[in-house]
Amino acid sequence: MSHIKIQLKPRQVEQLQEVCQSFNNKPGELINVLHKAQSIFGYLPAEVQEVVAKELNLSVAKVYGVVTFYSFFTMQPKGIHPISICLGTACYVRGAEKVLDEFKRLLKVNVGETTPDGKFSISCLRCVGACGLAPVVTIGEKVYGRVSPDGVKDILKEFE
Amino acid sequence: MESIKITIDKKIIEVPKGTTVLHAARQLGIEIPTLCYFNLGDMNIENKPGGCRVCVVEVEGRRNLAPACVTECTEGMLVNTHSIRVLNSRRTVLELILSDHPYDCLVCAKSGNCELQSLAQKLGIREIHYEGEKSTYRKDTSPAIIRDIDKCIMCRRCEMMCNDFQTVGVLSAINRGFQAVVAPAFEMNLDHSTCTYCGQCVSVCPTGALTEVDHTRKVVNALADPTKTVIVQTAPAVRAALGEEFGLEPGTLVTGKMAAALRQLGFDFVFDTDFAADLTIMEEGTELLDRLTRHLNGDTSVKLPILTSCCPGWVKFFEHNWPDMLDIPSTAKSPQQMFGAIAKNYFADKIKVDRKDMVVVSIMPCLAKKYECTRPEFAVDGNPDVDYALSTRELAHLIKQANIDFLSLPDEDFDNPLGESTGASVIFGTTGGVIEAATRTAYEVFTGKKLEKISFEELRGLENIRHATIDFNGLPINIGIAHGLGYARKLLEDIKAGKSEFHAIEIMACPGGCIGGGGQPYNHGNSDVIKARQTALYKEDIEKPIRKSHENPFVQKLYEEYLGKPMGEISHHLLHTHYFDRTNEVIIDE
Ligand code: SF4
Ligand code: SF4
Ligand code: SF4
Asked: Do B174 and A64 touch (CB under 8 A)?
């Protein structure tokens, strides 16, 4: 597993400590703390997990165990252009999975991963409420409807 | 206490409320097989995740089979431990586990001691009806422990030991489903983590997923090399456990047979770590008295309590967790390293052998000693004071490989001068023993009086934290004892908070001290084994003609001839060490 090393700024450490305090530093609140931390940092780098472990008086291994157990936690920073593919029922039956496969093939990364240049990351969602446009893909703020596997290449070109 | 009557396999038994079906059955002599369950009750160690489902039984009136390890007995319960449904379910569970397990038994280090293997035999598994993907995970090798996680069955015993008992917290279950493994944080290698190498995870692992680094081949090669003088030292706890590997009752002392076997194996000198334990008492005891006297005279720069430093697992734990208190443990080296330093300096000179042509092997109940002898400060120009540390189990293998009929060996003595020892050094192998040995010497030196009673019963036992006050001629000396790093942590937190009343504290990482060390024959969750080893050491102590370290004639001679006085210049150089802040040594692998 590859890890990108980061250095937390003192202010970020404080911010994390405040999050932990808001849950009374209770070890039982680990999942909630991690959710909050991920919403702040966008992902959960090792350094964040270390601070959380210390504050909640848990071993780092246990925190890492929880982070790797639940698929909604990620240790990878999102790309500059985060790609989300809707796998809700409507999109799914209209071939969203093939679209996803095409993104994976072209970018050579898996769901939850980021390209080595930090440009793109892929994640999946459940129903964005635009079922009429299925299959739906969002990249950053932009929404693409009726995406076909063939169209993926052109979409990616827009970001070059 | 309220008691409950239940029937298991048509036998009736009355048990206190709260008893599990597993324990009730055991009392009836019915051995329900278990796999993830592990218990060393006398030392507050228990693992019962109720996860493997090997121990299922049929309870009349219940629809589902019940795991016996977590099911409490209820009044009138009717239990069947071997109905056809139970037998089939148990087989299925085991076959599923085996379907994701390598078929390595022929060459596996755990073979013969593996609980998975014996369960497969017990249930008569001859083929596996499930075929599936097998996990593949990189092997992780450290100075003391090898993790071969493909053999992991996710019983999580190691996690319990490392987190709950030791509070080191290196190991945790990570990932989910098929990908799940037990690993250090961020899947870093063990030698990049805060692992203390106490080896307790190895002690409890039912399979070959966690084993020690085996140095027996290297030792055999050294013994076969005519240019090398090969010296062996054996730790106190080994003699009380080695016999188990040859079918003897736990607690059978095999000191004499062990010396004979080592001689037959071809070691040039068969010495005893106990000698170095006596030396440790001279140095550590003197240091204790020195700090105590200065403290009593109002010197505020001296720190009390003094902590023992013979356990390398404990030392590493300390270095990772309390870098701001590195001045409180005794600076005395562990007996293993004192022995190495004396062997490769004093003894090498005496027999006119260059230290490079001398190989020092130690036989230890311990895996942390494998790590300890690789610490760079214990080497001179890259040549280590102790070359190889073998576990009690590895020694048993060596003896068996050499076709030595261990049980019929005559008792032999250790060689001199580094083989002579006292009763005080023998009890180093049990929790409470080091501090009792130190007390015997410190009392006599401090008060100038002879001890009337040499045994200090108040320091003995198996509770995880103990304390006693010893009267030093009107001066009350408070002594604390902890075994298990989680308990040590409690005492250390008190010290840090300025709340500790102790003058001296003994700490051992393993349950029961070294008798329960990570390199000892597997106890398979039977604390009677550890108790029997403890009793054996106290017995050998009583039988020794000399029971106080400072009365060891060869130790006295060593000071006269070579060392000068305890904590003197040469002692300081050879027998003392210093500690390191290891907080920045934890490396997250890229
Ligand atoms: S050797 Fe001790 S500290 Fe290291 S992983 Fe095993 S139990 Fe934990
Ligand atoms: S490594 Fe051994 S003790 Fe740990 S979970 Fe796996 S099988 Fe159990
Ligand atoms: S208690 Fe003994 S066996 Fe265990 S780590 Fe310490 S020295 Fe080694």
From this structure: yes
Confidence at B590, pLDDT banded by 50, 70, 90:
low
Exactly one of B159, B212, B283, B287 is catalytic; which is it?
B287
Tokens of B273: 């770590």
Q: Which residues of B touch A5 (CB under 8 A)?
A: 588, 590
pLDDT digits (tens, 9 = 90+) for B456-490: 999 999 999 999 999 999 999 999 999 999 999 99
CB pairs under 8 A between A and B: 50
Same fold, B3-122 and B279-333+421-554: no
Q: Catalytic pick from B245, B283, B284, B420? A: B284
Asked if the Cβ–Cβ distance from B173 to A2 is below 8 Å, we say no
**Annotation marks residue B372 as catalytic:** yes
The string of pLDDT tens digits covering residues B135-151 is 788 889 999 999 999 99
Nearest-neighbour CA in chain B from A116: distance (Å): 14
- Read off φ and ψ for residue B401, nearest 5 degrees: -60, -30
Counting every residue written for chain B, the total comes to 590
pTM over 0.95? The answer is no
Chain A residues in contact with B176 by the CB 8 A cut-off are 68-69
Query: What is the C-alpha to C-alpha distance for residues B255 and B257, in angstroms, rounded to an integer?
Result: 6
- The Cα-based distances of B436 to A80, B329, B463 in angstroms read 65, 17, 16
Q: Least CB-CB distance to A59: which of B169, B176, B590?
A: B169
Nearest-10 crossing angle of helices A30-41, A10-22: 140
Question: Per CATH, the architecture of A81-157 is what?
Answer: 3-Layer(aba) Sandwich (3.40)
- Residue A87 tokens read as 């796998």
Query: How far is the C-alpha of B33 from the C-alpha of B468, rounded, in Å?
Result: 41
Put simply, the answer to whether A69 touches B174 (Cβ < 8 Å) is yes
For chain B, which residues make up each domain, given as ranges? 3-122, 279-333+421-554
Give yes or no for a contact between B128 and B99, defined as CB atoms under 8 angstroms apart. Answer: yes
- Record: fold of B279-333+421-554: Fe-only Hydrogenase (Larger Subunit); Chain L, domain 3 (3.40.950)
Domain B3-122 has CATH 3.10.20.740: yes
C-alpha angle A81-A86-A92 in degrees, rounded to nearest 5 = 145
Q: Out of A5, A59, A69, whose CB is closest to B163?
A: A59
* Best residue in A59, A62, A72, A73 for a mutation probing chain B (most B CBs within 10 Å): A59
Q: Which residues pair with B504 in a beta bridge?
A: B306, B479
B585 is an active site residue: no
Residue of B nearest to A2 (CA): B590
